[in-house]
Amino acid sequence: MSIKILVCITHVPDTTSKISFTDSDTKFDKNGVQYIIGPYDDYALARAVEIKESGGASITVLNVGLAETEPTIRKALAIGADEAIRVNAEPVDSFFVATQIAEVAKEGNYDMILMGRESIDFNSGVVHGMVGEMLGLPSFSPVMKLELNGEEVSMTREIEGGKDHLKAKLPIVAGCQEPIAEWRIPNMRGIMTARTKPLNVKEPVSVEQHVKTEKFELPPPKGQCKLVDPEHPEELIKLLQNEAKVL
Amino acid sequence: MAILVFVEIADGIVKKSSLEAVSYGAELASNTSGPVTALVLGSVSEDKLEAVGKSGAEKILLVEDERLNQPLVSAYATAIAQAFEKSDSKTLILAKSALSDIVAAKVAVKTGAGIVTNVSSLPDLSNGFHVQRSIYTGKAFENVSVKSEKKVLGIRKNVVQIKEDGSSSVIEKLAVDFSDKDFTTNIEKTEKAEGDILLTEAEIVVSGGRGLKGPENWGMIEELAKELGAATGCSKPVSDMEWRPHHEHVGQTGVKVSPNLYIAIGISGAIQHLAGVNSSKVLVAINKDPDAPFFKAADYGIVGDAFEVVPKLTEAVKALKN
After folding, report:
1. What is the CATH number of the domain that holds A51?
2. With contact defined as beta carbons under 8 Å apart, do A34 and A14 qualify?
3. Would you call B161 exposed, middle or buried from its count of C-beta atoms within 10 A (0-12, 13-18, 19+)?
4. What is the pLDDT of residue B49?
5. How confident is the model at residue A1 (pLDDT cuts 50, 70, 90)?
6. Range scoring the smallest mean pLDDT among A85-89, A100-104, B32-36
7. Does 3.40.50.620 match the CATH number of domain B3-183?
8. How far is CA B80 from CA A161, A174, B9, B100, B182, in A?
9. How much is the pTM?
10. Which pLDDT score is estimated for A47?
11. What is the mean pLDDT of residues A146-160?
12. Is A181 within the bounds of a domain?
């Protein structure tokens, strides 16, 4: 059986990026920042490619973003997606992005919609739940294992202090995290073929925006680290009790 | 402006983070003069709900349905959305948890509410509805305004103190109209560490890294944690090598914690690890490498051998308790 998988990816600053803002702290400063596929989305993509290799699947990768995200989308094609869709819009908030994904999904008849458990820029962790609700599909997150057996999906979901094992029927939406699959690095052949794989651009549907960004802020800078003599670690306990007042 | 707070139950007990959410609701209510109602799903004994009243809820809506003892996302979303409508609340508050983000997302879509998760402040109501949230995995904050009449807020730990001076709350049963679709997921098995303090709920976290050299050396981490009443965590390499279970992995792609005190032992402090701990109140690093990046982020540090320092620390905590 060959199934259709939609993998939604974010285009986000590398995890080591220094975060700063411009325009009176109203815009993220993109200067000198390296962009990557969201690490959680990368796990979702890697799992989709594994499913494709083992049982057959077609993979469509989707990003909501402006033209600047295309190198990131091409990387996903190089890793193993068959085609790509870019919804041509700034991803202003979770509800906006979820609405665009649901619109694309309605036309594509996908068996599985995979994405990361959250993006690493805005960390909302709600897009998978919203997409599921909009499409009337069950959604699961954070999923750390996903196996297909015909129409049935077996998943391991992380819960606080452990995990649970659950079963559901296709179609589903899942927010993924490690160790669902090993990240893939595109090989030369992948990079070459990615250049000619279809990347279709769609215009967004309009959405009423409920949540608006007013301003960004950086946390206050950290003071010096107070060092305690390793011969007298009990001094640390005293400081934590009397000075920091956390014991 | 009525406020509804979703209260999560874990192993028959109200989660501490949910009590914080109730107190957050009570603080918000003190500015808006609306009643605070807590919503509890599943079968739970009424004496366990006393703390919910103390932390600030006037009323508890209880959906007594045994099926809800399991964390079923769709059924939870249906129940919460119906309680949100029936209680005529304008704001829904949830404590951040592995379950609550996805449930909140579905409720927001069902009710047309604007949603903000990882909320790190009380709302400012002086000119509309403004609230601060943590973004870039704790490296920055975003101030947002919420325009919709209905609002869903997922709050982070440690935004408010838990109130203890509230009165007892009236318990009212709520009937929910579920559909078959709410129960299509089959949870076959749950694996949970019994009796441990949940990492996300802990006031103190003691974490170990590669510097501990092997899983057999975790005894001293556990002993220190036990004396401090702390939860145990670990770095990514440690969970990758399966020295410790994955749910203990703290960091960018693991659990994000914000305890009062985070003690990192033998963890160098890669930026991805720091991203998971940077909203903790006080950070302590113990590492034999004085150049370990963790010392740049830490409030207190000891440059020394963990195998010598940690047992002495445990003794000092014991002495303190006596």
Report:
1. 3.40.50.620
2. yes
3. exposed
4. 92
5. low
6. B32-36
7. yes
8. 24, 21, 14, 11, 12
9. 0.91
10. 98
11. 93
12. yes
pLDDT of the residue at B321: 83
Cross-strand bridge partners of residue A115: A175
- How far apart are the C-alpha atoms of B135 and A229, rounded to whole Å? 36
Per-residue pLDDT of A26-76, as tens digits, reads 999 999 999 999 999 999 999 999 999 998 899 999 999 999 999 999 999
**Alpha carbon of B244: minimum distance to chain A alpha carbons (Å):** 12
Token look-up 């994405």 returns A115
From chain B, pick out residues whose CB is under 8 angstroms from the CB of A144: 246
Assigned domain for A242 exists: no
Residue of chain A minimizing CA distance to B150:
A210
Judge whether A74 lies within some domain: yes
- Residue type for position B157: K
Among the four given CATH numbers 3.40.50.360, 3.40.50.1220, 3.40.710.10, 3.30.420.40, the one describing domain B204-321: 3.40.50.1220
Instruction: Check residue A111 and give its pLDDT.
Output: 97
pLDDT-above-70 percentage for chain B:
99
Q: Which of these, A182, A190, A148, A156, lies nearest to A39 by C-alpha position?
A: A182
Q: Which residues of B touch A121 (CB under 8 A)?
A: 135-136
CATH 3.40.50.620 positions along chain B are: 3-183
Residue A184 lies in domain: 3-221
Interchain CB distance below 8 Å, A211 and B116: yes
Which pLDDT score, from 0 to 100, does residue A65 have?
Answer: 98
Size of interface A-B (CB pairs under 8 A): 264
Residue range(s) occupied by CATH 3.40.50.1220 in chain B:
204-321
Nearest CA in chain A to B70: A164
Q: Is the pLDDT of residue A13 over 90?
A: yes
What interface predicted TM-score (ipTM) does this complex get?
0.93
pLDDT tens digit sequence for B15-26: 999 999 999 999
Q: Which residue matches tokens 């990758």?
A: B240
For position B31, what pLDDT does the model report? 80
Residue A148 has pLDDT above 80, yes or no: yes
Residue A36 placed within a domain: yes
CA distance B59 to chain A (A): 27
Q: Using CA coordinates, name the residue in chain B closest to A128.
A: B102
> Phi/psi at A224 (nearest 5 deg)?
-70, 150
Cα–Cα distance measured from residue A72 to residue A199, given in angstroms and rounded to the nearest whole number: 12
- Interface contact flag, A236 B296, Cβ < 8 Å: no
Nearest-neighbour CA in chain A from B54: distance (Å): 24
Task: Dump strand ranges (E) for chain B.
Answer: 3-7, 9-10, 13-14, 36-41, 59-63, 91-95, 114-119, 130-135, 140-146, 151-155, 170-173, 186-192, 204-208, 231-234, 261-265, 282-287, 300-303
State the Cα–Cα distance between residues B280 and B199, nearest whole angstrom: 12
- Given a cut of 50, the residues of chain B with pLDDT beneath it are none
Q: Using the beta-carbon criterion (under 8 Å), do B110 and A133 form an inter-chain contact? A: yes
Whether A138 and B184 lie within 8 Å, measured CB to CB:
yes
* Residue B78 exposure: Cα atoms within 13 Å on the Cβ side: 18
Q: What average pLDDT does chain A have?
A: 95
Spatial separation of the C-alpha atoms in residues B39 and B92, rounded to whole Å:
10
The closest CB to that of B147, out of A159, A175, A210, belongs to A210
